[in-house]
Design a protein that fits this description.
The structure is a homodimer. Chain A is of the alpha+beta class. The first copy, chain A, has 2 domains: 2-199 and 328-428, Aminopeptidase; 201-325, Alpha-Beta Plaits, CATH 3.30.70.360. Helix content of chain A is 37%, strand content 21%. Chain A has 12 helices and 18 strands. Chain A has helices spanning 2-25, 34-46, 59-63, 129-148, 170-177, 225-245, 293-305, 310-314, 336-349, 364-369, 395-413, 419-428; strands at residues 51-54, 79-84, 93-98, 119-120, 123-125, 152-153, 157-162, 184-187, 195-199, 201-210, 261-268, 278-287, 318-326, 329-330, 355-358, 375-377, 392-394, 415-417. In chain A, the strands form 5 sheets. Chain A has a 6-stranded mixed β-sheet with strand order 1-2-7-3-8-16, sandwiched between helices. In chain A, a hairpin with a 2-residue loop joins β4 (119-120) and β5. The longest helix of chain A is centred in the first third of the chain and has 24 residues, at 2-25. The radius of gyration of chain A is 24 Å and the shape is elongated. β11 (261-268) of chain A pairs antiparallel with β11 of chain B, so a sheet runs across the interface. Chains A, B: It is an enzyme of class 3 (hydrolase). Chains A, B: GO terms for molecular function: acetylornithine deacetylase activity; metal ion binding. Chains A, B: InterPro entries: ArgE/DapE, Bact_exopeptidase_dim_dom, Peptidase_M20, Peptidase_M20_dimer, Peptidase_M20A.
Chain lengths: 429, 429
């Protein structure tokens, strides 16, 4: 079966690469996911799946405590799902991938058009190539392979092509609410072929630090919000240290800071010769797999009101939670889907897989916490090029990962009978 | 003579207050000084002065090393000067006041329209009331009083009504270049009736601090420009300490930080979950009376390239000098104009004057350094309301200061003969 799958993948390569180019060439920034979703829906129909394409609009979706998006108009952002129904008695699996991409940023930093899909030296270039249209192609190949080889499985295989992952997972939320959950999930985000049973969650926050204005020439008559911001930043650095010292899971052994607190943005003051009376800091706090978002919010907020500083005690920093959030997620390291994927990784690559914790959040958090679908993150693509100019994916890795994932699905969902496949083998001889 | 001057001031009060209202009601933000200058020119003509109203446009002005402005179009910003020519053999004096005002800021923080000129409880309200149209009124009263009482003086009295003081003194530069200098000067900026023989100079600077970007979830792969900015800020705090420890002049005895370095503005980073790769800080550095701007620039720049930090050594912060600058200025504490003003202060108020160093720059720096006209800063108005909402001036103080200044001018320039005045006295009896 392994050889058969690999052979099928090789045969499909040219057509699949061309399809990846088509996906990359559709700019699918948030709010603009429709075209690529229609393309994927068409492909699913071609391979013989019934397709569910819908625009989330129910009240339950918008009112859900885990609804987190910067918009309420999803009219140009449909979700797509397709199910290969099992014969019964088997375990089901969700294959989840997002189609939204982050903006290309400063175009002048790209060698080619950000949506070129250009191919060079075995790499395919373009925004989304790695994050995560290459991964989506793995899933589509798995779906097509199962259909094409007429492999009847006992469990359902449920494919999600979701929108809006990059700022908090509204697409996957909608898929879960529509009932597309399973016994476990695989999400081929770009892990550089590492297997991530745990994913760091994260949230964005904004802190306002207050001072008292004065003329710069008599700055001692005021209280500099910038000096107070430095006190706040030092407290945040201490908090990060405390939070990370608590983490003992060996998955995090090689990660210098398992759940970092990143301060990404600062602004404040409006005149060089005035004492600034307000500074705003925006950042991202990592959430460990065993934490809830509520616990983490409370911990940061409590720290901000207990800083040892007279001024800050009387004028405590104000914490806001805004923008994106990703729930942490984890699957037991000894979960059978983990065992199966590890085995198939070794079968195909000949090497031991690297098992680590993900330094960023994925839709696996929502699938785990809300959909009761423990998720493994594993896919082709190098994380370091995601969100950067000249994003690319090594094409060979896509097919390697696709074969590993397909075989793992067959093991997990169990092949009921493969008469068609035998017939096919005969024919090929 | 003292009583005579005081009597004259009392008589003029209603008319003068009404004129101050007119001045305040003319919004004279930079680039918009024309209307108030026309008003002042008219007043000077009314009291019998020949008026010089001109738009600085000569190459010498724009090319001058002390030219410092955010614009090159002064077509709506004339300067005004008027001279009461002396009979000869006496010392001359410059009376300098600026008409430009800073913007009103957030209008909702004002109780009244910022240009209302409203009067309540002995105070006149409006942007510029204190900084420094109230002071300008003192000078106009002095001019009018000398004319009205027909006091022939030996030395020239040279009145400047200048634009563009609030960002570096281009108006006073133009007046100096046009030849309006003297043996000494009085500038009635709002000192709250303190006498400032020394004025702090200042310059604006901008510092760019560089880091290396990375995803916030793996922030340890980047170098936070914000963390490096904190190192830079600490170095600036040390520099401020060093610079102030050098100042031993007793004038600064009661001033906690004689020449502060104010960090007024910060911004950097563009995404909460990215490591910021550039932070910009804007500030103002105070310049001591015995320092040159060049020395101060070099000291800050040298500090920025010698910070003990591996990253910053390899990626040194970039310092820019932009926007406003004010030269420091000083007059000998024992200068005769100082003695005269101190005496007249005591004569009228009955109290000893407070002698201090000014915590901010004025056009006195340019007058001293370029115009060889040592300057005293002394005027009505409370500094703390300048540049703030609901700016106001206590009206009584204007007339007190005007009398002190007028008497000081008479002493300094020397009354040649006052037959007209004697005649006038007789008539009034």
């Amino acid at each position: 079966m392994l050889e058969e799958i690999q052979k099928w993948m090789m045969k499909k390569k040219p057509e699949a690469i061309s399809f990846l180019q088509q996906m990359v060439r559709k700019n699918s920034e948030q709010g603009n996911e429709k075209e690529v979703q229609l393309l994927i829906a068409e492909k699913l129909k071609d391979i013989g799946c019934e397709v569910d394409l819908w625009h989330p609009d129910e009240e339950e979706f918008f009112q859900h405590p885990y609804f987190c998006a910067t918009r309420t108009d999803f009219s140009n952002s449909p979700n797509v799902a397709a199910v290969i129904k099992g014969t019964g008695g088997g375990r089901s699996v969700v294959l989840n991938g997002h189609v939204d991409v982050v903006p290309p940023g400063d175009i002048s930093q790209w060698d080619n058009d950000p949506y070129s899909g250009a191919i060079k030296d075995g790499k395919l270039y373009g925004r989304g190539a790695t994050d995560m249209k290459g991964g989506n192609l793995c899933l589509l190949l798995a779906m097509e392979c199962i259909k094409d080889l007429k492999l009847d499985l006992k469990g359902d295989v449920i494919f999600h092509s979701v929108m809006e992952e990059e700022s908090g997972g509204a697409g996957t939320l909608a898929a879960i609410l529509r009932g597309y959950t399973a016994d476990a999930a695989i999400i081929p985000e770009p892990t550089n072929m590492k297997i991530f049973p745990s994913q760091q969650g994260s949230m964005w926050f904004r802190i306002h630090i207050f001072g008292r204005s004065a003329h710069g020439g008599t700055r001692y008559e005021g209280v500099s919000a910038l000096e107070k911001a430095m006190v706040v930043i030092q407290e945040i650095q201490r908090l990060e240290k405390t939070r990370n010292e608590r983490i003992t899971d060996p998955l995090y052994e090689k990660i210098p800071i398992p759940v970092p607190i990143n301060l990404g943005k600062i602004s404040g003051g409006d005149w060089p010769s005035s004492v600034p009376d307000c500074i705003m800091i925006e950042g991202r706090i990592g959430v460990a797999p065993d934490e809830t978002l509520e616990q983490v919010r409370k911990e940061l907020e409590d720290r901000m009101t207990s800083i040892q500083d007279d001024w800050l005690t009387k004028h405590p920093p104000r914490v806001e939670w805004f923008g994106a959030q990703w729930l942490p997620g984890s699957i037991d390291k000894e979960h059978e889907l983990m065992q199966l994927l590890k085995k198939r990784f070794k079968d195909i690559s000949g090497a031991e897989p690297v098992i680590e914790a993900s330094p960023w959040g994925t839709d696996g958090g929502l699938l785990t916490a809300l959909g009761h679908t423990p998720s493994i993150v594993f896919g082709p693509g190098v994380t370091s090029v995601a969100h950067y100019p000249d994003e690319y994916i090594e094409m060979d890795k896509i097919f390697e990962a696709a074969a590993m994932i397909t075989l793992t699905i067959l093991d997990w969902c169990e092949v009921a009978h493969q008469p068609q496949q035998k017939e096919l083998l005969k024919k090929e001889k």
